[in-house]
Write a structure and sequence with these properties.
Blueprint: E1 26-30, H1 35-45, E2 51-56, H2 61-71, E3 78-82, H3 94-100, E4 106-109, H4 120-141, E5 145-149, E6 160-162, H5 176-191, E7 196-201, E8 203-205, H6 223-232, E9 239-243, E10 246-247, E11 249-251, H7 252-264, E12 272-275, E13 281-282, H8 283-294, E14 299-304, H9 313-321, H10 323-336, E15 350-352, H11 355-361, H12 371-386, H13 396-400, E16 404-408, H14 413-424, E17 428-433, H15 436-448, E18 454-457, H16 463-477, E19 482-485, H17 502-530, E20 533-540, H18 542-545, H19 551-570, E21 576-583, H20 605-618, E22 622-624, H21 626-637, H22 639-652, H23 668-677
Parallel strand pairs: 1-2, 1-4, 2-3, 4-5, 5-7, 6-15, 7-12, 8-11, 9-14, 16-17, 16-19, 17-18, 19-20, 20-21, 21-22
Antiparallel strand pairs: 10-13
Helix pairs in contact: 1-7, 4-5, 6-8, 8-12, 14-20, 16-17, 17-19, 21-22
Length: 682
């Protein structure tokens, strides 16, 4: 049987003539390799004996095999016709065209540029001129009916209800995509010599049963911001958002089923059909539906975005013409993963009447499902297959393998624990410290793990020694990819006990602030030249909680944090990132002189190293524990209450013997508070 069916090959694109009396339903499809086209072809081929000829630029076996696997047929029923939408006659030879003459009952034209960000000239060439060539081709082969797949974009930004019998009423066609979809429809209406039907799908998303979709599009642009909200806030947290116009979202399976059914119905030639949701949701409602599917916080209060319209258009345009405004807008949109053009859809003004489509589908059991019923399917598919983070290697090895990482204060504690992780991940790991013996012990320990460690003895609080270290680094390695400013010193001493020891504050600033900044500034020029680099500064939870008895230490770390925030803003556009880690109390030699800390809730150096590696892998602006954030919020909202709380802890825990205080036993109250706070910073 199959030997007698039409076959088109790459060499001659010849089609075997149909035998007299054979009743075979044959289709011709452009855009058969696209998202909608592939599924339409599969549905057409599900009809017994149907044959689909499809236009394809590259008919190589490796390209077609995936299509045949998706359709579940072979070349006998899905026949590739090599050609090009941008060439005269679709690039199909005369013999192939003659072989198709009079045999195509339905010609579906789906090929188009659907990208809002695509070049205008490209859209004109494909959407407009390509449609003109398809119309001419349909007439040349005597196709039974031309089915043109347009878009609701053909209506432009029409304000009000746009009916299926409306066309010339379209307005707001400034965007190239809107303009080309409108003009391509006009060509079909004016120039088609064969019967035609026009379909205007809404915003097409994935399959309502599987969620399957080819790329992130439409409302899926908001999935990443929703995912970020889910990570930051609990689901029950009320949010303030926007309420915009109604956007029409339809799943691809509904569009395909409706097109197939309407194409076969009698007496519908010359009509247009809106394949849309009859009950579209507003932008805020759509976002809440997907927020619910994502288990993210929902917008309990929605502000009408139409209020922006109260600002005169000329003022808005003048503001957007300013380079700083455009840059800020683009930066925010880029950070959220949103295309700039999506803003115009927030107040989308058009509603679409679909009475013709609904009448044609009556009794067929084909209806557009409610977004609420399949939103979770779309979210699940996106998170499993299309989330951009899936393409990023979020392992430590993926981020530092083969790169140069410098960790200051790496001979013990947090620095050594982090250095072991980084070295094991394949980085060229450099540590520095003041004590050569401790550095050698650290190198031997890492070497015992089967990894290498480069050491350099220097005192970062000494400007000359710091500069010497920078010169050695650049002469030896040329650059540093990741810098972890971990070296530091701390003093736990009340201000009253520091009156005669101002030099201690100067020592803190010299290492914790000036040393870290001097080293960073020494390495920044090479990072700027390479447009790449990441700086991790180990700050303190005390900066967030304003911990008493740590005024000098907190001040030095706060200064580093402030400098880091300024630097991050200056270098945000050159590929250099900064992260501040508000480190909680860690059981290291630095806190050993304070006996009260022996029963305090502290992190181990290995647990602290987890925060450092998290900073390296994800590159957030800041890492802070819940206790630190709670303290920051308390100081911001109720500063007097915060002072009382911190003063209570100040009076409850006296000076350590290292700070000149009397050696004191831990009181029951102190022990109770320590136990209550255990683990809270997690």
């Amino acid at each position: 049987m199959h030997s007698s069916l039409p076959i088109v090959n790459r060499q001659c694109a010849m089609i075997a003539p149909q035998r007299r009396g054979e009743n075979v339903l044959e289709y011709f499809v452009t855009g058969a390799t696209g998202f909608i086209g592939r599924r339409l072809v599969r549905r057409l081929l599900a009809r017994r004996g149907a044959i689909v000829h499809f236009l394809v630029r590259d008919a190589s076996p490796e390209r077609l095999d995936a299509l045949y696997a998706f359709w579940g047929v072979d070349r006998a029923r899905a026949v590739p016709v090599e050609g090009d939408l941008t060439r005269d006659g679709l690039g199909i030879g005369e013999r192939a065209r003659a072989a198709l003459q009079g045999r195509i009952r339905h010609l579906f034209h789906l090929a188009a540029v659907y990208d809002l960000a695509a070049d205008a000239q490209r859209q004109i060439e494909v959407n407009v001129e390509g449609t003109r060539r398809v119309v001419a081709f349909a007439g040349a082969i005597g196709a039974g009916c031309l089915h043109h797949v347009s878009s609701i974009a053909a209506a432009g930004l029409y304000e009000g209800v746009f009916r299926e019998d409306m066309f010339d009423e379209a307005e707001g066609l400034d965007h190239p995509y809107f303009a080309t979809k409108h003009e391509s429809e006009a060509i079909v209406r004016r120039e088609s010599s064969v019967p035609f039907r026009i379909y205007r799908p809404g915003m097409v998303v994935g399959d309502s049963r599987t969620g399957e979709i080819d790329k992130v599009d439409g409302p899926m642009y908001f999935f990443k911001p929703l995912q970020r909200l889910r990570r930051l806030l609990p689901q029950w947290m009320p949010m303030v958002g926007i309420e915009g116009g109604r956007i029409n979202i339809v799943p691809v399976d509904y569009v395909v089923a409706a097109m197939d059914h309407i194409a076969r119905a009698r007496g519908l030639d010359g009509k247009c059909f809106h394949l849309v949701d009859p009950h579209p949701l507003r932008v805020g409602e759509v976002l809440n539906v997907f927020a619910k599917a994502a288990h993210a916080p929902q917008m309990s209060i929605r502000i009408n975005a139409a209020l922006i319209g109260l600002i005169p258009r000329h003022i808005r345009r003048a503001a957007l013409a300013l380079a700083p405004v455009r840059r800020i807008r683009d930066a925010v949109m880029h950070d959220l993963g949103l295309p700039p053009d999506i803003l115009q859809f927030v107040n989308y003004p058009t509603r679409f009447d679909s009475r013709e489509a609904l009448a044609a589908l009556e009794g067929a059991g084909i209806a557009c499902p409610r977004l609420d019923d399949y939103a979770w399917v779309l979210w699940d598919y996106w998170e499993r297959h299309l989330d951009p983070e899936l393409a990023i290697d979020r392992t430590l090895r993926g981020q530092v393998g083969g790169k140069i990482v410098l960790i200051t204060g790496g001979s013990s504690g947090i620095g050594l624990a982090a250095a072991r992780r980084v070295a094991a991940a394949g980085a060229t790991t450099i540590i520095c410290g003041r004590d050569p013996a401790k550095l050698e012990a650290a190198r031997a320990a890492v070497q015992a793990d089967g990894h290498e460690l480069v050491t350099f003895a220097c005192d970062l609080s000494d400007p000359a020694d710091c500069d010497r270290f920078v010169h050695w680094l650049l002469d030896t390695f040329g650059h540093v990819d990741v810098l972890v400013n971990n070296a530091g010193r701390s003093i736990r001493r009340g201000i009253e006990s520091t009156f005669g020891r101002f030099h201690d504050l100067e020592r803190l600033m010299q290492l914790n602030y000036f040393g870290a900044v001097r080293l960073t500034m020494g390495l920044l020029p090479s990072m700027i030249e390479r447009r790449s680099g990441h700086v991790v500064n180990i700050s303190s939870i005390g900066v967030l909680t304003n911990a008493p008895r740590f005024s000098g230490y907190v001040a030095s770390k706060a200064a580093l944090d402030a400098w880091t925030r300024c630097a991050a803003s200056e270098f945000a556009d050159v590929g250099i990132t900064f992260t501040s880690v508000a480190m909680p109390l860690v059981r290291t030699p630095m806190i050993a002189p304070t006996g009260l800390y022996r029963s305090a809730p502290t992190l181990t150096p290995e647990e602290a190293a987890d925060l450092v590696t998290q900073a390296i892998v994800y590159k957030p602006v800041r890492i802070a524990t819940r206790l630190g954030i709670a303290g920051e919020v308390l100081h911001a909202l109720m500063p007097r209450v915060a002072q009382i709380v911190m003063n209570t802890s100040f009076r409850m825990f006296p000076e350590s013997s290292a700070a000149g205080g009397a050696q004191a036993k831990v009181t029951p109250e102190q022990e109770a508070l320590q136990q209550m706070m255990r683990g809270i910073h997690f």
